[in-house]
Amino acid sequence: MMVSKMKLFMFPGCALKTTALGFEASALSSASCLGIELIELPNWNCCGTVHSLSTDDVMHHLAPLRNLLKAQEVDHDTFFESNGKLVTFCSLCFNTLKRSSILIRENTDKRNIITSFIEKEEYPQFEVSNFLEILREIGYDTIKNKVKKPLKGLTILPYYGCMLLRPKEIGIDDPENPQVLEDLLTALGADIVDSPYKTKCCGSYHTVANKRLAMNLSYKILNNSENNGANAIVTSCPLCAFNLDNLQKEITQVHPSFRKIPIFYYTQLMALSFDLEDESLGLSSNYVDQKPLLNKLGL
Amino acid sequence: MQNNGSEKTKVKVYILGKEYEVPSSLTIMKAMEYAGYRFVRGCGCRAGFCGACATLYRTQGDHKLKAALACQKTVEEGMYLTQIPFAPAEKSKYELRELKPSPNILIQHYPEIAKCLSCNTCSKACPQDLDVMDYVQAALRGDLEKVTKLSFDCLSCGLCAIRCPAEIVPYNVALLARRLYGRYLLKAAPEVEDRISEIKEGKFNEEISELMQMNLDDLKKQYNEREILI
């Protein structure tokens, strides 16, 4: 089946421009291979990072809503061509933007406070999506047809973390037993390992102030995947990827028998299986080098 | 239109809460001097370049707190005036030659930029009409070129830092970005390099010594009649 052309607004988020450069490179190249043109949202700002739960804290919704308004104002054509869809990659960006977009649609009082503060009449009509949802809509058979180099020998734990699935009103899949990464990775020809830790927290931003806490949480995920026979972990969240990868340095010191395991973004494995150029995989910046495993498997 | 400084047209302003009548053609700074205030600090070039005379004001009947440079903004009827003598601000200490222009360098020196709420209060306060919020956001993701270009006309007057609810000092972040961009990323202009080597090779020695020996009047004449290339 031919893939039809699709134009979508992309919200990259700060991580894809700093710690997760490989995520952006591989997202752009694999999307383009699938006929999806990703257009970076003009002049975007921080997503807001964490969705504020206190009911009177309107200020923290400004950042996400400003982003959603920007594209509507700057580029009407693309807004309509993309069916009003804004695609996110980082799970935190997805979570914050989506929850704020729902809040402003449903809560008229808060909407009025926000729109009057930012001196705008209109409010965002965007539907916030995660790239994994777009891939599911395109269909895994279509993706499978693009695979030139099936990921034979890769035994992967798909790790979801929290922000992609919770709360369930915005989650892209079953919060207890998600399958979207499993389905994608199966289409790419990889073997899947299940783990009770696949939706547990990696330690998130505690990695800044309480590294030990984040390390202990990440260790459980990493160690369990190893015990279950995984030789790699795949994630969709730059913060999860940062913790799971970087904290292996400290974990090795505390647990000498721990064996290092490489972390990938699902887009990197898509680009790899589509047999795209090395640069578009963005495999250079991790603490645990992914290349020895890929070389061993002839990928 | 302004009234060309005519004393006939006066406006009522309130300086630190006290009512004064001042000529409507005056700037805020001159109006305060007219009322008897004397500026020792918090005023500088009086031409809108140095950024020393940041001021905040309101106008009767308008809830908005506005910001300006006192040497640039002319007084209006019903203005409530004061002067901001100085903006207290923390500046990171660094040796530029020891830094690298990495994507995380600005957030390492100024971690508070991560607290930006995108409220845009900084941009509204900027008397230079800069997109301050946009450059703070660019700083957050390490885009040194964008910070440099958006902040280039900054005077460091301090109004953005005073108004920021996240207590960021945008202009010091931008200063570091411009220094890094200038030192490490901006490509040297080839024509400058060419000219420097021409000077070293002595191409202009003859003309320079001719100028050095000229008397003052001839020199002035030559200067005034010089060809200006646009």
Keywords:
heterodimer, A: 299 residues, alpha/beta, Glutathione S-transferase Yfyf (Class Pi), Chain A, domain 2, Rossmann fold, 2 domains, four-stranded parallel sheet, 14 helices, 8 strands, 44% helix, globular, B: 230 residues, alpha+beta, Ubiquitin-like (UB roll), Fumarate Reductase Iron-sulfur Protein, Chain B, domain 2, 10 helices, 5 strands, 37% helix
Characterise this structure.
With about 300 residues, chain A is an alpha/beta fold. Chain A folds into two domains: about 5-130, Up-down Bundle (Glutathione S-transferase Yfyf (Class Pi), Chain A, domain 2); about 150-295, Rossmann fold, CATH 3.40.50. Chain A contains 14 helices and eight strands. In chain A, strand 1, helix 1 (about 20-35) and strand 2 form a beta-alpha-beta unit. Chain A is globular and about 60 Å long. Chain B has about 230 residues and is an alpha+beta fold. Chain B is built from ten helices and five strands, in the order E-E-H-E-E-E-H-H-H-H-H-H-H-H-H. Chain B has helices spanning about 30-35, 105-110, 120-125, 130-140, 145-150, 160-165, 170-185, 190-200, 205-215, 215-225, and strands at about 10-15, 20-25, 55-60, 65-70, 80. Chain B is flat. The interface between A and B is medium-sized, with 17 and 16 residues.
